[in-house]
């Protein structure tokens, strides 16, 4: 009887443990800008100080070239790259604990087309649903692989061309992989879609199981951009929030139907949108750079009715903004960091932190990590209404990819290496 009672208690304890939420140190980073696509981590006790050789758990060379950011799922770290001058497309998997190369799978060859020198042919960050990893390359092709590196399917129906190349990343919503293709014309007049609006932009949804197209969302008139979509969850239903040159829009995830749109002048827009508290925070592109904040809940053209506020100071052109209520943080490519009141757009503080900033900032445990390009310096700031630098950490390698946070470590991709920062992974 005593043994039976003990077994019952043990079984009850096991059920209780299974029902308990996972600790923050078990958090995956499965897509561009993490679990919510907004650069936010729930983890605690992360590294504050490091260099290229100090407080580094491991450092490995990444084969090929690419600026996709790392993602982390369980004990796997994924990146993409290309070889043969951008033609040969690869998805690469490293062991999270050791940095050992698990596999390097070539998924297809692609036609190499025009891009800006600042871009790469493997800039889109891969995404995972916990079963497979999905990757997009500069020619528009998509590949799905299982976690052993075996190719599950490819989707090659879109032959993408953009004057700048392709830099947006895919996301997953339920059983859909969503990818924004905001390119330009490769015809005789290459200003069409770049300097001149056109109607050829596509928000594509494919089935994650099969790779078959489910729908194509149409923007109407827009220009090229590199904005990774995000998902807005509200009581009225979910929406895909997607921006491009001249436009920020909401789409129905079931059908791809355009629900609302605003005019937001500027081509080549790169910062991704973030959402929260009934607001969509966006940045416009070149020509008229503006932080433009939109109230949710509209239908049709809501340019005149749903813009909550605008700010033309401290507008980022590359790095995505970071929303940590009640503040919105941004950094320009020239290294000017700004903290704004998210409800009003008023500037709380604005300071120079130095460096060129291509990667998007991340937040965890009261700290904001800004990674600059030339020397791979991460400036760590205290989040809040007071400007306070906590640390400066250089790895002395060029960095454009954004930081990933998972299971107690920071993962940084430089031009040639992948770093695991912090203690030996558990």
What does this 3D model show about the protein?
By secondary structure, the chain is mostly beta strands. It has a single domain, classed as YVTN repeat-like/Quinoprotein amine dehydrogenase (Methylamine Dehydrogenase, Chain H, 7 Propeller). The chain is built from one helix and 34 strands. It has one helix at 2-19; strands at 40-41, 56-61, 71-73, 76-83, 88-95, 101-109, 127-128, 132-136, 142-146, 151-155, 171-173, 176-181, 202-207, 213-218, 230-234, 237-244, 246-251, 258-264, 274-276, 279-283, 291-295, 300-301, 307-311, 322-324, 327-331, 336-341, 347-352, 362-364, 367-371, 377-382, 389-394, 404-406, 409-413, 417-421. The protein has a five-stranded mixed sheet with strand order 1-28-29-30-31, with no helix packed on it. It has a five-stranded mixed sheet with strand order 15-16-17-18-22, with no helix packed on it. Strand 9 (142-146) and strand 10 (151-155) form a beta hairpin. The longest helix is centred in the first third of the chain and has 18 residues, at 2-19. The radius of gyration is 21 Å and the shape is globular. The two termini are 39 Å apart. 49% of the residues are buried.
């Amino acid at each position: 009887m005593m043994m039976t009672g003990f077994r019952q208690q043990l079984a009850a304890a096991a059920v209780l443990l299974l029902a308990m939420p996972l600790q923050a140190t078990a958090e995956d980073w499965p897509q561009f800008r993490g679990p919510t696509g907004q650069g936010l981590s729930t983890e605690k006790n992360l590294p504050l100080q490091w260099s290229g050789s100090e407080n580094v758990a491991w450092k490995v060379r990444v084969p090929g070239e690419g600026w996709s950011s790392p993602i982390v799922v369980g004990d796997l770290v994924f990146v993409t790259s290309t070889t043969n001058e951008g033609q040969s497309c690869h998805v690469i998997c490293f062991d999270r604990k050791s940095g050992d190369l698990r596999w390097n799978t070539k998924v297809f060859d692609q036609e190499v087309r025009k891009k800006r020198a600042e871009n790469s042919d493997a800039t889109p960050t891969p995404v995972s649903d916990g079963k497979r990893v999905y990757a997009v390359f500069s020619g528009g092709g998509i590949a799905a692989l299982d976690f052993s590196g075996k190719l599950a399917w490819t989707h090659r129906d879109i032959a993408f061309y953009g004057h700048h190349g392709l830099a947006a990343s895919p996301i997953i919503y339920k059983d859909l992989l969503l990818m924004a293709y905001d390119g330009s014309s490769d015809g005789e007049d290459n200003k069409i879609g770049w300097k001149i609006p056109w109607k050829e932009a596509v928000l594509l949804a494919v089935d994650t199981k099969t790779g078959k197209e489910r729908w194509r969302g149409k923007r109407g008139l827009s220009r090229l951009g590199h904005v990774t979509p995000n998902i807005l969850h509200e009581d009225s239903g979910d929406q895909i929030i997607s921006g491009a040159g001249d436009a920020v829009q909401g789409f129905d995830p079931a059908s791809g139907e355009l629900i609302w749109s605003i005019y937001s002048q500027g081509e080549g827009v790169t910062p991704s949108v973030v959402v929260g508290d009934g607001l969509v925070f966006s940045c416009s592109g070149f020509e008229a750079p503006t932080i433009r904040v939109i109230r949710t809940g509209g239908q049709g053209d809501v340019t005149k009715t749903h813009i909550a506020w605008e700010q033309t100071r401290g507008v980022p052109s590359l790095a995505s903004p970071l929303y940590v209520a009640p503040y919105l943080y941004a950094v320009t490519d020239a290294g000017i960091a700004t903290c704004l009141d998210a409800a009003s757009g008023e500037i709380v503080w604005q300071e120079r932190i130095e460096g060129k900033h291509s990667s998007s900032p991340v937040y965890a445990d009261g700290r904001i990590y800004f990674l600059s390009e030339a020397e791979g310096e991460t400036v760590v700031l205290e989040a809040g209404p007071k400007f306070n630098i906590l640390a400066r950490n250089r790895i002395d390698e060029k960095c454009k990819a954004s930081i990933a946070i998972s299971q107690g470590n920071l993962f940084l991709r430089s031009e040639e290496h992948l770093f695991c920062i912090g203690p030996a992974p558990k």
